[in-house]
UniProtKB/TrEMBL annotation:
Similarity-based family: Belongs to the UDP-glycosyltransferase family.
Enzyme Commission code: 2.4.1.-
Keyword field contains Protease: no
A GO MF label: UDP-glucosyltransferase activity
PROSITE patterns hit by this protein: UDPGT
Segments of this protein annotated with the region Disordered: 62-85
InterPro entries, A to Z: UDP-glycosyltransf_plant, UDP_glucos_trans, UDP_glycos_trans_CS
Organism placement in taxonomy: Eukaryota, Viridiplantae, Streptophyta, Embryophyta, Tracheophyta
Keywords: Glycosyltransferase, Transferase
SUPFAM superfamilies: UDP-Glycosyltransferase/glycogen phosphorylase
Name the UniProt record assigns to this protein: Glycosyltransferase
Pfam family name, one: UDPGT
Amino acid sequence: MTKTVVLYPGLGAGHLTPMLQLAKLFLQHGVAVTVALVEPPVKTPDFSATVARAAASNPSISFHVLPPPPQPPSTAGSSADDTPRHPALQMFDHLGAMNAPLRDFLRSLPTSADALVIDMFCADALDVAAELNLPVYFFYASGAGDLAVFLNIPSVRANMTMSLQEFRGSVLSLPGAPPFKASDLPEELLKDSEAGKAVLRRMFQRMPESNGILINSFELLEPRAARALRDGLCVPDRATPPVYCVGPLVSGGGEKGHECLRWLDAQPDRSVVFLTFGSLGTFPKKQLEEIAVGLERSGQRFLWVVRSPRGSGQNLNEPLPEPDLDALLPDGFLERTKGRGLVLKSWAPQVDVLRHSATGAFVTHCGWNSTLEGIVAGLPLLCWPLYAEQRMNKVFIVEEMKLGVEMRGYDEEVVTAEEVETKLRWVMESEDGRALRERVLVVKDRAAEALKEGGSSYAAFVEFLEDLETVNRP
């Protein structure tokens, strides 16, 4: 009988996209897949459109949008003093309230699922799986290095006499990671805020309760972290469940006819620097101006995605208006760089741009999806982390993988035009930049090999399926 798994992604395209790639991996191994989706608490037309596109592009996968809970959590929008709750707390509240609809859906399936695979933010669903006696696995959509560090943090905090905030200027040495500054941890963990405590309590402290953890990475990219996780070094006081590095799982792209792809067709091979900062990455006008000046002075060809600055206190889920490039960028910039550069408003077909033969380097916010997409495309990474785990990703990219360099000033008020100019010239023109590009091309080949039959990620996924068979055996 065909096995069936239910995949339960978190909120946002950044979590759905890799989960869909995981779904395709299950299908390749003959496992049927149903994806249970949660509509965001702030309803947007984007959600329905995203689900429709996913269903149309993946006809072999079943999609089910869970109904909202009977009563939304009273804490979803604000606290008792009307202070807006942190987006992470709102997300945990919303996903926690979805346990009842998820349980009802799993019970309604004509054939019982063989496993539930949950997003890293959906740890509350562990309670549903336990109630239904259903094997449950996490899909960690970021890197093995991040996971090694974050699983360590509860133990680190418990053994510290000072707060992480007081420790931020010091260096941490943890299993699975190179030495790094405490200030590279996510800000909410440093501040020991309610949101940070919730992330630790409702995600990383609960992960060891699962039957295993699938990681969107591959062994040769993060050998130290993968080894530390497997050896149980990252959860000192408990057993670590099996970990399986099954990546890189990235989108195949497939956009056709976008103006930027036609523009790239006219550029020399490996000559264009691509700058984009994720779906939530925005900059104030001052920073946009510094980037523009640096691009102009560098003399490099560039493709740059510009988004409108986010207003003070604006909800992350609120759509941004279309950027007014003439108002945001220096006078005459667009005209002076015409032909050598192209500025896009809000969005670009990222995977297709990265894989285009004209693209030669990638300025990135170090989100893990973008990081893997850049590596799979064989591009050096100019690292400009903005929020969440991106600073930790920067540490691993620069110090451990040696596939990128840091854009200095990312953690200060502004990255200067001089830094933008210097780093772009370095990566595109210098001998050290050439050596970096060659290293990335080697890892690109290793990424492809990992996914082939006999490769490390292929073998890890087969091992996972065999372990699942054992767990399900009476």
